UniProtKB/TrEMBL annotation:
Organism: Sapajus apella (Brown-capped capuchin)
Role this protein plays: Microtubule inner protein (MIP) part of the dynein-decorated doublet microtubules (DMTs) in cilia and flagellar axoneme. Forms filamentous polymers in the walls of ciliary and flagellar microtubules. Required for normal sperm mobility.
Name of the molecule in the record: Tektin
Keyword ATP-binding attributed: no
Compositionally biased residues, Low complexity: 88-97
Amino acid sequence: MAQTDVLLTKEPAPQTVPPCELPCKVSEVARNTGAYTSSGLATAGFRTAKYLLEEWFQNCHARYHQAFADRDQSELQRHESQQLAAETQALAQRTQQDSTRRVGERLQDTHGWKSELQREVEALAAETNLLLAQKQRLESALDATEVPFSIATDNLQCRERRQHPNLVRDHVETELLKEAELIRNIQELLKRTIMQAVSQIRLNREHKETCEMDWSDKVEAYNIDETCGRLHTQSTEVQSHPHSTSFQESASTPETWAKFTQDNLCRAQRERLASANLRVLVDCILRDTSEDLRLQCDAVNLAFGRRCEELEDARHKLQHHLHETLREVTDQEHNVAALKQAIKDKEAPLRVAQTRLYLRSHRPNMELCRDAGQFRLVSEVEELNMSLAALREKLLEAEQSLRNLEDTRMSLEKDIASMTNSLFIDRQKCMVHRTRYPTILQLAGYQ
């Protein structure tokens, strides 16, 4: 119908008559009068209701062409429909074959990941059992550290009963404090390691459960894909599911699907490696802590022996130092007296120089001159003031030194008085108690 316009060979009749072609005599009666004409109507400037002959021919030619065009279009559509049916049949077969092949490839991928997950689950279970055994060793070693800690604290408390001024932080006390601090640090380390082992065991189990869930999902997906791979056009269990083609919002892509399992495996392997490293670390910690405790115990015992020898010789040395201190006190007292006399000797020259300056300040008029004598008197006063300041500072230092010597003398006398009590505490109290120290096997968690 849209192509009928091109078959018209003549221009269509005008819809109106131009004003210039109207008849000049308006009183003349129209010729096309009759039963079915527009006689009696006001038709001036308009055409009649009848078609022209040219219009009739144009309409017939349009109908001929429309019939020919419709038949040609129908034949073309029939040919295209047959061709489309054949192509879609072949396409459906190819698509189904390709889908079956893709499902088969998916089955292989799923089976591979499923096997990897199963191996990882078994490896995680074995690793967790090994870590549980190491955790038990840590707990035994932690219990074994209570005896050394009680020995160290008891030694420190006994040595607190030493008399002043011999209550000093000597090498023995330093080693005892180091031993107590070492035991506390080892206990904290063992507790942290136990907590770390517990946390690692929990992580191992969580990742094992994650891998098991992933493995279970893949087993179910494998069974579904295996069923889908066996379906064909003659299968009786196929049904129409028109809405199954829409993707679910939570559906994953092949990349995210593979990455999900790969991430699970990587995290599980990472935790398994961390668990193995933690077991090695536990072995190193237990070995090092037990050796450190025994070495520190030997160091404390050696310090006690040396300290007792030092105390035996200390009284003689203290008496010698006391004698030297008393002699130095006497010398320093003489030094203080000499400094005071030197200060007193500088006061008279200072008064003379100040008096000269005062008298010269009363010279009249132009005689009040800044001559060489004036400058020398000013510098003399400054030099004397500086000398006095230096002497007073040195006097303060000498007096402080004298006070320090007196304090030292009193300290030496108190130290000599407390030597016997210190020897009794170290030999009879502390060293006897240290004979109950645990063995290295107990400290390593084996007993």
